[in-house]
């Protein structure tokens, strides 16, 4: 049994049909062949998609092909499915039918699968944040499998609470405030480092995302206590693990720091992943002499400005997921079989130690076959594009655009991930979406205010010294709309038949969200965090339906 997410349209336009008719439904109605039942292979689906959407690029065609192929062939009766709803609720069901094409149905409701809805109004707040994050992809059809997703969705379908990820750090959940974290690091001493995910680490301060304000607060708190996180908590994804160490303690009688003592004592008792963290700390300590500030909250090679938030290669989930690959000495047929089965354009070629020795692609295979009728894997292997997880992602975008991928390696130069152009499309699509949403909210507010409220009353909502600078609603800050629309005369001028108090509360919540959004964070905005702003936009579209 597997678990899937199948959305009901970008704006939930197919939700009612899905729930009332007991169906999963996807779009792509322009497919000339219509019924995909006879498309047994991915290549046949791709050909149909490419013919229907000739203006789209190869990565979009490939992405859409994968989603349709999953919907038609990979989803099986008995699988679980999650449908996120625009109402901040979630429906959970069990697939009971194979793919169907309904030629006589309305546009957008033709590609379907039958489903038995088991829960139709599950509150998102009943789902733990890591599973909610997994539901946040912009794709219409995708599988969720990480963090025990299948078992957890099954529990939700039975009306039970989300049991949480099977490898959840129960101890980390007890660190409910910074003081408890400090005390635990102190209690453990040198022999037992405290390790936890960045997600759990941030939760100690009650935050979910890393942006300048929260990062500065955490860094200052760590520095005041003489602690260091290794690797820096500003690097990696929210599920990356870090160690919290007493880096600022003075040297002991032997002249060594707590971090150095920790790296040389009792490592055999640690897990492999946690041992790597401590060894990373030792390498960092060895690279530079301590300053008067010790290692408070940052590694010694960083400058005095502290930890900067950067968008690293490692911030992409695919950079931390071991890709399928072939090994030196494998047959070329092994590579081509995997590439056809998985729909890959290329595969890394690794040596026995897990280090990159090159890449095999359809282009390199074609070139090898021009030179020889039956080439081996070695002849079809070309130099691969390889990045460190700590590199700035922006420096690699051009390479990914040119070659279609970049292989990611860890500090030991072993392959640990693969980023494709499709990964970038999804990642930056996820990042652009909140900005587009907030922009439409602001544009709608400006339009209705300019249409309904005289300029003198608009100017009255800002401080006197700024009134002369206001020539229309476009000159207002987002926060000014609250004060403008709080006035009974202005609110009445809108002619909206909605509750003023609830609207102003939603406007304030959106203002806070907008301000947080404008501060850079390497962490994506989840659907759950988008919900209040989406609700406000839907309300504005209802009361002011002009396009």
Strand and helix map with partners:
Elements: E1 3-6, H1 15-21, E2 23-26, H2 42-52, H3 58-74, E3 80-84, E4 89-101, E5 111-123, H4 129-134, E6 141-143, H5 149-157, H6 178-188, E7 194-197, H7 198-204, H8 212-225, E8 228-230, E9 241-245, H9 258-263, H10 272-286, E10 326-327, H11 332-342, E11 346-350, E12 356-361, H12 362-371, H13 377-380, E13 381-382, E14 386-388, H14 397-403, E15 405-409, E16 415-420, H15 421-452, H16 455-459, H17 464-467, H18 480-486, H19 488-494, H20 500-517, H21 527-543
Parallel strand pairs: 1-3, 10-11, 14-15
Antiparallel strand pairs: 1-6, 2-5, 3-4, 4-5, 7-9, 8-9, 11-12, 12-13, 15-16
Structure description:
- With 547 residues, the protein is of the alpha+beta class.
- The protein folds into four domains: 3-157, Roll (ph1033 like fold); 172-309, no CATH class; 314-413, CBS-domain; 424-543, no CATH class.
- It contains 21 helices and 16 strands.
- The chain has helices spanning 15-21, 42-52, 58-74, 129-134, 149-157, 178-188, 198-204, 212-225, 258-263, 272-286, 332-342, 362-371, 377-380, 397-403, 421-452, 455-459, 464-467, 480-486, 488-494, 500-517, 527-543; strands at residues 3-6, 23-26, 80-84, 89-101, 111-123, 141-143, 194-197, 228-230, 241-245, 326-327, 346-350, 356-361, 381-382, 386-388, 405-409, 415-420.
- The strands form four sheets. Strands 2-5-4-3-1-6 form a six-stranded mixed sheet, sandwiched between helices. It has a four-stranded mixed sheet with strand order 10-11-12-13. It has a three-stranded antiparallel sheet with strand order 7-9-8.
- Strand 14, helix 14 and strand 15 (405-409) form a beta-alpha-beta unit.
- Helix 2 (42-52) crosses helix 3 and helix 15 runs parallel beside helix 21.
- The longest helix is centred in the C-terminal third of the chain and has 32 residues, at 421-452.
- It is globular, with a radius of gyration of 27 Å.
């Amino acid at each position: 049994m597997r678990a899937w997410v199948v959305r009901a349209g970008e704006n939930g336009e197919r939700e009612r049909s899905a729930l009332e008719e007991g169906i999963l439904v996807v779009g792509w109605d322009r497919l000339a062949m219509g019924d995909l039942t006879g498309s047994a292979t991915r290549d046949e689906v791709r050909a149909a998609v490419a013919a229907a959407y000739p203006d789209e690029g190869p990565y979009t065609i490939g992405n859409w092909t994968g989603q349709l192929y999953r919907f038609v062939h990979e989803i099986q009766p008995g699988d679980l499915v999650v449908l996120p709803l625009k109402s901040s609720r979630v429906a959970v069901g069990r697939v009971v039918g194979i793919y169907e094409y309904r030629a006589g149905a309305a546009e957008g409701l033709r590609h379907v699968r039958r489903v038995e809805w088991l829960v139709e109004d599950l509150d998102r707040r009943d789902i733990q944040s890591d599973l909610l994050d997994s539901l946040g992809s912009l794709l219409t059809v995708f599988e969720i499998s990480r963090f025990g997703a299948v078992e957890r969705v099954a529990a939700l379908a039975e009306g039970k609470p989300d049991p949480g990820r099977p490898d959840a750090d129960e101890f980390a959940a007890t660190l409910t405030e910074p003081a408890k974290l400090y005390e635990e690091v102190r209690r453990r001493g040198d022999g037992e480092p405290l390790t936890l995910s960045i997600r759990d680490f941030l939760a100690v301060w009650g935050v979910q995302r890393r942006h300048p304000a929260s990062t500065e607060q955490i860094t200052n708190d760590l520095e005041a206590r003489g602690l260091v996180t290794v690797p820096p908590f500003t690097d990696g994804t929210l599920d990356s693990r870090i160690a919290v160490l007493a880096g600022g303690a003075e040297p002991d009688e032997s002249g060594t720091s707590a971090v150095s003592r920790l790296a040389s004592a009792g490592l055999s008792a640690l897990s492999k992943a946690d041992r790597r963290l401590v060894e990373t700390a030792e390498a960092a300590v060895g690279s530079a002499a301590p300053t008067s500030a010790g290692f408070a909250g940052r590694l010694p090679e960083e400058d005095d400005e502290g930890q900067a938030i950067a968008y690293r290669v490692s911030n992409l989930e695919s950079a931390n997921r071991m890709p399928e690959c072939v090994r030196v000495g494998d047959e070329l047929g092994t590579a081509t079989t995997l590439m056809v089965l998985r729909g890959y354009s290329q595969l890394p070629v690794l040596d026995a130690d897990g280090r990159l020795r090159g890449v095999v692609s359809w282009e390199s295979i074609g070139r090898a076959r021009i030179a020889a009728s039956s080439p081996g894997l070695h002849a079809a292997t070309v130099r691969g594009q390889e990045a460190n997880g700590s590199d700035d992602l922006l420096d690699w975008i051009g390479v990914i655009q040119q070659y279609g991928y970049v292989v990611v390696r860890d500090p030991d130069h072993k392959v640990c991930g693969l980023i494709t152009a499709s990964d970038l499309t999804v990642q930056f699509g996820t990042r652009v979406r909140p900005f587009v949403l907030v922009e439409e909210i602001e544009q709608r507010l400006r339009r209705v205010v300019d249409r309904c409220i005289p300029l003198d009353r608009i100017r009255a909502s800002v401080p006197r010294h700024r009134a002369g600078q206001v020539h229309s609603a476009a000159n207002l800050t987002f926060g000014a709309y609250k004060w403008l629309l709080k006035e009974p005369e202005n609110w009445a001028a809108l002619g909206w038949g909605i509750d003023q108090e609830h609207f102003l509360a939603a406007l304030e919540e959106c203002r806070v969200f907008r301000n947080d959004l404008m501060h850079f964070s390497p962490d994506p905005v989840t659907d759950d965090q988008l919900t209040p702003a989406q609700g406000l936009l839907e309300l504005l579209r209802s009361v002011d339906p002009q396009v």
